[in-house]
Write a structure and sequence with these properties.
With 220 residues, the chain is of the alpha/beta class. 30% of the residues lie in helices and 19% in strands. The protein has seven helices and eight strands. The protein has an eight-stranded parallel β-barrel with strand order 1-2-3-4-5-6-7-8. Helix 1 runs parallel beside helix 7. The protein starts with a strand and ends with a helix.
Length: 220
Amino acid sequence: MTFELTASMMCAYYGNLEKEVRELDEGGIDSFHIDIMDGRYVPNYAMSLNDMCYIRSATQKPLDVHLMVEHPNNRISLFLKNLHPGDTVYIHPEAEYHPSTTLQAIIDAGMIPGIAINPGTSVETVFEMLRIVDKVLVMSVNPGNAGQMYLPYVGYKIAKLLHLKDEMGFGLYWDGACSADRICEFAPKGVRGFVLGSTLLFGKGRPYGEIIQDIRHLRF
């Protein structure tokens, strides 16, 4: 069974970011997840535009840019002009008055449009947008900080989205508290990719390549 693995770079060691990117790249990571936080939409600051630009220059792998910011349409061009066609940009629908306008800007720039769904956001409130996005990132924890507890009711939401993904034409991705057990449970059900952070990838004292290979050979 194949599934995508993306590294949550807010969990990386910033004392040597070049080495982190290189070792993840060589270790077989599929993409790099960039969490941009403004301290308003979420109660924290994380990665910056400059962090994103550096990682974009340091790898040929795709970026997944997760905008946890208020009114992303006001600044979306700053991000889009520094990305490559085929990179993914996720927005939170609640953060924008007219999220479809922001998604159209992402599409027009040649990027992959996505929405991120918070644990408290129902499928029904984003139903129409499912028709115009290529990716749906389901947050299994409240956004803003790494290392939070998994919220088990998110599994019911994923079940609803799995029933819709083929009809609506989107891929489903998991973000937050991503353990081996979660991958073993949800990859066979149709979740396409998983964001790896401090639960499974970072801070383990082992080469990233070894960890990534172990994840790819999990028994289902």
